[in-house]
Structure formats: C-alpha cells, structure tokens
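Handoff note, outgoing to incoming analyst
You'll be picking up this chain. Sequence as last confirmed:
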Amino acid sequence: MNDGHRILITVDAERSPDGAAVPHAYTTQIEFLRRAGHEVRLFGVDDRTSPSGILRNLRELTAEIYRFRPDLVVAYYGTMVAAITRRAAGPVPFVVTFRGSDLQGTSNPGWRWRLRDRLGRMLSLWAAGGAKRIVVNGSGLMNALPAFMQKKTHNLPNGINTEIFSPISREDTRRKLGWSLEEKVILFNAGVGSGQVVKNRPLAEEIVARLRPRPHGVRLEAISLCTREEVSLRMNASDCLLVTSLHEGSPDLVKEAMACDLPIVSVPCGDVRERLEGVEPGGVRPYDAPQLAELVEAVLEQGQRSDGREQVFKQGLDIHSVTERVLNVYRMAAQ
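Most recent structure output, in case you need it:
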C-alpha cells in the first residue's frame, strides 16, 4: 500500500458533527496512519443492539463507503461492529482487528451477559470469515480463533506514542496533581461500562489492603476516562501499576507504563508476561493476593523506576515500528 490510499475505519463509538468519538486506544495508530500519508476516515457504529439502529448503521456505512470509495475497510472491533462492516464493505478488501472481549467475552455475571458474549463471538467469527486479513493484539486472542483463521491472522500489539508516554519527574507530576510527596500510590485501570468486571477490582483492593501500613499511607488510584496526557501524568506520579484483569489482549496501559518507566505488577493475562520479560522491578505473579501483595511491597520498598522504556524499543512497541507492521498487513489485504 503506497502513500495516498484511502482507509475507512469503523469503531464502536458515538458520532457527532466533529466525527466519531474514538477511544484513545485507537487514536494513536490513526494519527500515525495519517502521518504516513494515508487518507483515513472514521465511521462510528453508534447502535449495536436495536434492530432499527443496526439497519440504520448498515445503510449509513454502505453510503459512506460508496461516497469515500476506500481502498480498504478496517473494523477496529469485532461483534456487531465487524459484522456490519463486513456486510457493508461488499467487494472492498476488509480487515478486522480484535481487541479482547469481542472474542473472549466480558466476564459479566448472569445468563443475559453469557448469551450476549456468545452471540458477540459468533458475529466476530462470521466477520472474520470474510476478512482478507485479521489482526489480534495478543497470543490469547490468536488462540481464540479457529486454526484455519489463524493462517491469515497477525499478532500486532498496539503501538505506544513514546513522546506522550515518557519519564517525567515524580515530584513535579505530584505537585501538578496535588498529591502528597510521601504517600505511596498504586495505579489501577478500573475500566468503563461493561468492561469494569473484567478488570477484577476486588482482587486489586484486596492486594492493597494486605500491604504493610506506612506512615503516609498507601492508596489505589483508579483511572477510567482519562486523556492520554492525564494517564501519562498519573503514571509518572505513581509508584506502581497493578494489573489484575481476568483476561486481556495486549493491554495498552502496561506498555504505556513501561514507556514511563513505571514498575508493573500483574497477573498472567494477555501478553503481559511476554512484555515484562526482563523488566525490573516488578513482574508477574499468579491470581493470588498474598503473592501479588508481596511483589508490590518489594517494589514500594525498592522505590526505584523500572527499565521498561528500554524494552519498549527493544520489543518494537513504539508506534513508528508498529504502524509499519500494520501497513504491511494492510498492503497484503489490499492486493
């Protein structure tokens, strides 16, 4: 795919006169695709549940494809987003990118959620069947696909903007946030909406409760709806990132924390073990509160930043490297 190609990307997002409200997990790659010289247009699938809303999105996306005449259509999520995209794309080459819960479910309790998760997976697999190429961001998602689909699947973790996510003075960032300089802060991704359950907050709270009392205290700093700049600020102000998710693909927050040299303690979800190989202090422990608390305690006692940023570049996780690999996949799909 040479410069100047047109790429239409569909996302699970509300629409406004300013365009689709894209989650920041997607914006970095879109920004760098545009920097590479491609014309990228976004379409927000704003209703995935009501029959009338699904049909409306299908009609509007079909019309958008007719007007824009893209060289490639990419769904940035599975389930109904990918299903609508496959149907609307017609003869235009189509790529689907799976993020995690679109193949693995949400882990929310109750028969309605189990039914919804199963239906979502069925839609994801149907869409993947019509895709020229499939992209996943973790080996767990690769293994969630049937063997015959894995042959056209590429495991590409999201790239990290290492300009936004970079080490900054802990003292300076704490002053900006109004945090105490002495308090120990454990950063945690609380998720949003139906995605909160999979983040497994009860385990995170149990871990923090087990930490040895300190004169100035230890607290869990839960984040959800924050800009990239706000996340970077909190990473540089925190002492440790704690990940307790029931499952993940390739969590961006882990790679962003690595780029900020923030120590990370995690359960073995997604590709975290692979990402943290050789990164110190921090590491991976089983889903066991005492073991995880022991490792967090060691990180707090050591009181040092990690060497994660070096590993970001060694593993090719910076956005420049990942965007080039993504473009290679898009070139193969567009042939």
